[in-house]
């Protein structure tokens, strides 16, 4: 793949113009929202529509029908459509679980089992464990976000803060899991064993997680996590949530996991443990899917726009610029980290970003005698950092959709992501872990 990026030189003007739709989106959504002081006023879908229209205007020598086809191919990416199926089922399960009282019962079980000061650290550890077990941050977010949101509502905590705990923990496990697609892509591109990359990654991710855990243990009073009274809900209503978590942990496909959750909810209601009719349950699921409509539209628009950016040479230009001048081993590591981060910014998919720059990173590793285990770790870690921070990433959009919050509401509370960023910088500056 490396030759593909070097065959054609992308001029500065052409490269910057190809990337300009991202600037348009950021100006419309982030800057305008900051100016008016409210991130809910400017619809993200409208910002993406305008930015996408601008992207299509950058191809004047191509027929309109062909431009739309390029955009549509980006939006119809297999990963995008698979994510949309998850959105459908996640919305249906979340609404149905809430309708039959499953989420309320689960929250009450947690509150009766944990002291108030351990609720937030416990939620973070749970998200870390599940995501490491199932190898997907999306599956973890689907399983835990409704619970975290309802927990915040019950205890009087900050909803964005509680959901961000799940978001951070989901990326910790995803980054370290042996079955994660990002781990597989990173290790294969650098020709290293998964256990070697895991050990290297621990030096970066584990300290960040410990720092985050200490922060969560210390700030419970700030976010007023108050102990709530335990109700009389039937513990049978906890079963759908337990089945979702257990089946996810043992590695069942996320679509099957959500389907099992929905069927369990229906079975519990039909057995008389919830005073809900079959028609009412259908209504819950329909409303849950409807609540995901904005999320699905944003996902399709973002994928289509990023497909046009890639077609116009935006990703090639980024790689070309960042690999132009590398003079030391530390600079080589920094370029690898920056390269995968920026490409992830343009593709909104950490696995695709790793695959895109993997061969280039391998060549940089050979040229400057870098530890390939460290390079694989940087590829995985830095792509996960950017994926967690961008408001149009699938994981952030999923969490925002399930919790009915703005995608940027989590940014101030992503303590693990910021701690991980600090550890990456320190690992490059002080070159740890050192090659054995």
Task: Describe this protein's structure.
It is a single chain. By secondary structure, the chain is mainly alpha-helical. The chain has helices at 2-7, 12-36, 44-57, 64-75, 78-99, 102-113, 119-134, 137-155, 159-176, 181-190, 194-218, 239-249, 254-270, 278-291, 293-311, 314-322, 329-347, 350-367, 372-389, 394-403, 415-429. Helix 2 (12-36) packs antiparallel against helix 3, helix 7 packs antiparallel against helix 11 (194-218) and helix 9 runs antiparallel to helix 19. The two termini are 29 Å apart.
Count of DSSP-assigned helices? 21
Largest beta-sheet characterization: none
The rounded distance between the terminal residues' Cα atoms is 29 Å
SS-based class: mainly alpha
Low-confidence stretches: 1-6
What global shape is seen? globular
Question: How are the SSEs placed, and which strands pair?
Answer:
Blueprint: H1 2-7, H2 12-36, H3 44-57, H4 64-75, H5 78-99, H6 102-113, H7 119-134, H8 137-155, H9 159-176, H10 181-190, H11 194-218, H12 239-249, H13 254-270, H14 278-291, H15 293-311, H16 314-322, H17 329-347, H18 350-367, H19 372-389, H20 394-403, H21 415-429
Helix pairs in contact: 2-3, 2-15, 2-16, 3-15, 4-15, 5-13, 5-14, 5-20, 6-8, 7-8, 7-9, 7-11, 8-9, 8-12, 8-20, 9-11, 9-19, 9-20, 10-18, 10-19, 11-19, 11-21, 12-13, 16-17, 17-18, 17-19, 18-19, 19-21
């Amino acid at each position: 793949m490396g030759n593909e990026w070097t065959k054609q030189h992308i001029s500065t003007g052409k490269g910057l113009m190809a990337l300009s739709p991202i600037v348009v989106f950021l100006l419309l959504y982030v800057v305008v929202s900051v100016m008016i002081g409210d991130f809910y006023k400017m619809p993200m879908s409208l910002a993406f529509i305008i930015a996408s229209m601008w992207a299509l205007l950058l191809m004047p020598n191509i027929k309109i029908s062909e431009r739309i086809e390029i955009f549509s191919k980006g939006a119809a990416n297999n990963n995008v459509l698979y994510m949309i199926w998850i959105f459908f089922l996640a919305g249906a399960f979340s609404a149905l679980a809430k309708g039959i009282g499953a989420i309320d019962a689960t929250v009450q079980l947690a509150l009766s089992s944990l002291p108030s000061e351990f609720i937030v650290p416990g939620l973070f550890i749970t998200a870390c464990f599940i995501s490491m077990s199932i190898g997907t941050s999306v599956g973890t977010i689907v399983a835990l976000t409704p619970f975290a949101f309802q927990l915040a509502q019950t205890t009087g905590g900050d909803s964005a803060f509680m959901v961000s705990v799940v978001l951070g923990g989901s990326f910790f496990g995803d980054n370290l899991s042996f079955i994660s697609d990002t781990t597989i892509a990173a290790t294969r591109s650098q020709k290293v064993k998964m256990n070697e990359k895991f050990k290297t990654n621990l030096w970066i991710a584990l300290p960040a997680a410990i720092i985050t855990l200490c922060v969560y243990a210390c700030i419970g009073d700030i976010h007023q996590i108050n102990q709530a009274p335990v109700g009389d809900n039937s513990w049978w209503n906890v079963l759908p949530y337990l089945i979702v978590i257990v089946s996810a942990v043992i590695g069942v496909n996320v679509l099957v996991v959500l389907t099992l959750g929905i069927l369990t909810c229906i079975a519990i209601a039909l057995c008389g443990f919830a005073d809900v009719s079959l028609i009412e349950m259908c209504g819950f699921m329909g409303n849950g899917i409807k609540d995901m409509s904005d999320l699905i539209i944003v996902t399709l628009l973002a994928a289509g726009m990023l497909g046009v950016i890639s077609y116009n040479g935006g990703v090639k230009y980024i790689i070309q610029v960042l690999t132009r001048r590398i003079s030391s081993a530390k600079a080589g590591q920094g370029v690898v980290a920056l390269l995968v981060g920026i490409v992830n910014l343009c593709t909104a998919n950490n696995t695709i970003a790793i695959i895109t720059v993997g061969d280039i990173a391998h060549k940089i590793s050979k040229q400057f005698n870098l530890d390939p285990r460290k390079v694989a770790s940087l590829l995985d870690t830095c792509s996960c950092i950017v994926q967690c921070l961008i408001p149009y990433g699938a994981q952030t959009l999923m969490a925002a959709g399930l919790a009915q919050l703005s995608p940027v509401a989590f940014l101030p509370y992503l303590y693990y992501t910021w701690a991980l960023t600090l550890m990456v910088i320190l690992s490059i500056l002080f070159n740890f872990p050192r090659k054995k």
